Amino acid sequence: MSDPEDQQENENPELENIQTEPPLTTSKHASSVSSKIKTEDKGLTMKDQVRETLNELFKQAIVGRSWKNKEQEVGNLLRLDSTAFAQAVITIVTKIMLVPTQSSKQKTIDELMGVFLKIYEVIEKQFRVAHCEDKIKAILQTHIDTAFLLTHYKAKNISTRAYAWLEAVINVMPLGAISDMKRKILKSIFTHCLQFAMTDIPNAKNSDSSRIQAIRISSRICKAIKIKGKQEYIDLITNHFLKMMLEDEKEIVRQECINSLDLSLKTIPYVVTRTMDKSKLVRQEVYKALKSNTKVQFMEIDVLDRLQIILNGLNDHEPDVKEACREYIINQVCLSKGSDNGGEGSDEQLEPMIKTMRAIQFRSTYTHPKISVATYLYMREILFQTYSLDSILETIEKLVKIIPQLSEQKQFGELFECLVFLNFALNIIKKNDHQLTSGFQFQNLELGVHVPTLDNLKGIIDQVLADCEGQDAVPSDEFAEMVPRLIIFQCFHLFNHLLAKLTMNAQGGRNALSEDDFCNITGMIKGFFNSKTFFERDYLNENRSIQFDYVEQMQAEETALQEIGIGIRDQEILIHVALIFLQHVCFQVTLDESEQAPNSDLERYFQVTKDIILDQRTIEELDEQEKLLIKINEKIKTYIDLQTTLSAEISKITTIGEQPEQGMLDKLAGATEKLQKYQGLIMRYQQGELLQLQHQLNMIRYLLKSIKLGMLHVQLFPTFGAIINANVTNKTVKVRALALECLGLLTIHDKALFEEKLRIYMDQIIEESTLKVKTDATIVALKCIFDGIMIHGFLLESGNVQDILRQDLRKLLMKLLRDTDYNVRLLATEGFCKLLICERMQNPWDFIARLILLYFERSKGDFGDLNQRQQMLMLKIKETIEEFFTFFPRLANERCIELFEATILSIFYLIKSRALQNSDPQWDKINVFYLFGKLSNMLEYKQNKQYAIFDLAQLGLSYQYEFLKVFSFMILNPEALGTPQEKDQFAKFFVNSLNFLDLNELPLVHTDYEREFLTFINPLFNQLSRFYEKLEQQAIVDTQWKSLAASYIKKRDSDNLRQAEHEIAQKAKQIMLQAVEAAKTVEFEEDAYSIFQHCQAFYNQTQTYQRDFSEQRTQSSQDASQRTAPHSVHDYNQQSKRAMKQLHRHAPGDHPPPQEAAKPKPHMPPAVKQERIFNDQRMKKENFQPLPQSGPKRPVGRPTGQKPPPVEKSVEKEKKQQSQDKKKDKKDKKNKKEKEKKKEEVPGKEVKKRSKTGNETEKQGMPIPGERRQTRRMPNQE
């Protein structure tokens, strides 16, 4: 059989004129072409002579693998007859291209092609010869046309070599000549090349190399098009390069796209994203391209992209990538203009060190979530490795001298940048995280020279605070408004360096802090806290929430001042930082987790903080304010009386038709003016009082946050308790919320205090229970309750004086699960999940059952009646509960028991309430089979074996079997269920619930399955089958019975491996017949009865709670006729089918846990989330739009030609299925009514018809009127 590629050679008729000779063969003894062409040879034409001569030159070039020393001969041939020369080149190239591909010769042919294409390097040199430029352009144009034609050839080896040929010609042709080509030809070439480059052909030979050549051709054309400024073509090519760079799976393609792109301010942001590429070659290519392929300077790039380059490049784990980034940044930032050595240079060749910090631009990046990391990497990897030790220390000395001057001149922007530089430099030296001269340590720095003194730092803080007090209006610039707190934040970092220097000796050890230094530092901190006006703007901001998190750069409170941060979000954070620094000063050293401060240091810290907080509102100040307030109130009362008297007199005069005197009118106007003045004083006094309260409570709040559990001094309880208790009922929400939070932080240290103050939190929640949206005070109170329960275990106890309070608390928390404020619902849900996971609740079944009902009351698509915020919170609630149920039963068998009983409680409530028609309207929508199927799957043995940390088989416990026993007890025990409606509904539920139980796990789990089957399971199923035979629903029961009987036979006869299936089935029938003949009534264990009693109590309790639910009150006006009627057999069958479909959709195959199929979204770290938000805001601000898309497109991450994945339409399918079910129900009801009418008209005829085919009627599940069987028929017995 011939080679398929040989068959493809003549498929293209356009090549018939080119294929004139057989493939070229080389000779080792090729003669030298030194003599001139003899034109007088009559046997050959000029065209043939040129071709033969060029062929001989090529043979010599093959031997030497180069066209060196043959430039003259090639030039002579070209000038002799350019047309013949062009044709000769085409002939030789096509001969090489058309050689059949064989695996053993493929490499030789490619090398042969590469050697010949070097002839274009010789042709390029002929451009310098006079009068040859036009001829060469014509030759190259001919070659471009031919090579482009061959790229369309079907044989891949030919098209691949054609791209190599086309690339060689395009690279030689001048850009001007390319731009002068016909527009149609030029457009066809780059369009075809772009299409080919974007098409990744799997398993194609040389596909990658051809795509790379197509990219280079397009890039060359793009450079040529720029000469004529055809922007639409430039954008087209650039967009396709960007698309391939961002989406292509081949790293060599992404790498070539980066190298071929024209890097400008528009394209650089996209290229910078490849600094996180999975391939180190691509990442390295980014920095190389930025260094050599663009004229855009580093300082001209957007500052956020600069931060990405620093963060990703200098923190890369590959040394080559990291070094490429370093070289690029050093070359762009550190080297002075005119110095181009490409690396580290002497200090004379470098820019001033302070000037290099402008690359980060702190004024616009101080809020970036990773600005601290970027600054640290930049200084450690660039500055400390580029500049010498002397230069670094000299820069630090300059900064220490200049910062007091900048503070006095109020140049706060420059002052902030200098403080950041100084802080990071000292931090790097302190950590010894540098490569400076060996032996240089932090203790070698001099105080006052390299580290600012206490007076310098105190002067900076005083100047900033004074400037804030002197400002009448808020600065319009955001940075100008934030810079005071940023400067103070950096000063506290410098205080930390100063403290380390003061307590460090020359050997690197630590000394005790002197008393004078201690007094000076504490005095400075007291002065900072006493500047109340500095915090007024934050306190007066109505839109600011009081719930803050700590600075994201700080990993722990104890190391807050060791981890350098730059940006903070509000001024109150400075209170926390100042208290932490004060703790360091009092303890002299930072505490580790395992250490405890000496009692003297701890008492000193508490005494200092106590004095600072109490000094905010001294007794003398309060007495003076009280006296002033009394005087103002007396004045107000006086002027009110005067205004009333004068108004009455003027009214009497005007009623008799006379005009009042002018003096009387002036006196009234004066009284009104004075009254307004003193009322304004009262308002300002109240506002000042409010600000002082917020400031004092904030200090208490952050003090309590900085103290670990068990370390709070007893003396602080009465001191702070008086202040807190006086404000927990304050009318102002902010003050009340702060007081409640302080009380919560105080009560977690003492259990008795928590039990004493618990009523305060509960009263706050009850007070706002009627509000649709709760205030911050209620949110704080709820958090304090859950924190106290978590720490003190309040709900774990019973049998003491707090039982009434404990019962009231349980009722209150249960109601919050369905509060009108969905934020409160979310907090209650999260709190319950944490308490249940940590085992901090006694008898947790009721709470778990509430969570079950809360989760299933709405599907994820049933949020139409909620607004956007409520939908978001409701979705978060469902995700929280789903994650809780995913991990809860995997922790221990006790957790499985709790989930098992909670499942029964929720199912019992749903079925009984529907039977009695008093169910909650929202819970009436729950598909009880979907609920049962999803929860029972979590308790299956195979899920336990795969995910849990314990083994149910070792315990001999099967929860599927336990479900069966409990439900069977409710069905078969005549005393279990009260009304016939309840028994009917439970019977209909139970028979369908068997489809969701995996009873096949019993032989694997139960320790003595054979004995259990004979003594309990076999007679139980006989009793169940007899019970459901009356309802004509015994088919499902009999199926499960036969399966368990067969598993019993296999277990009993496990030695007989050759036993056939029909033999097992026959033996199983015999075992079942024995149970039928015995007709034994099973006796259930006491656990089943106790669970049933618990179910009754839960039902009654839920009915009581239901009256208080706000959602239930909105539904109470509904008529009884609007409530859902008890379900029929058909209704239960339909619900069961829908539930099975949903479970299979979420967990296809062998029922893995439903939560695994619908995992919650991974938590996004706050830094990443804030960075994304920051980038989005920056894009909107700059109106930075991507380049217009045109030309061929393909979906992201999918090769062209591949079909897109099928789109799931589960929601539409479910809606369609529901509509079909409704239509079917209507049709069935209609047919049923018609049959009943016919039955009433001719009853005897129907009976006769059924009696003829009794088995058929039994299969249909229809009872025979008047017929009663004497003996029971075995399942499926013919």
From TrEMBL:
Pfam family, one: Cnd3
Biased composition (Basic and acidic residues): 1209-1223, 1231-1246
InterPro entries noted in UniProt: ARM-like, ARM-type_fold, CND3, Cnd3_C
Domain named Nuclear condensin complex subunit 3 C-terminal: residues: 697-868
Start-end of Polar residues biased regions: 17-36, 1108-1137
Gene3D superfamilies reported for this sequence: Leucine-rich Repeat Variant
Spans annotated as Disordered: 1-44, 1108-1166, 1183-1278
Extent of Acidic residues compositional bias: 1-14
Listed GO CC annotations: condensed chromosome; condensin complex
Localization of this protein: Chromosome
One GO term of the biological process aspect: mitotic chromosome condensation
Major site of localization recorded for this protein: nucleus
Keywords: Cell cycle, Cell division, Chromosome, DNA condensation, Mitosis
Stated family: Belongs to the CND3 (condensin subunit 3) family.
Protein name: Nuclear condensin complex subunit 3 C-terminal domain-containing protein
Biological source species: Halteria grandinella
Taxonomic placement: Eukaryota, Sar, Alveolata, Ciliophora, Intramacronucleata
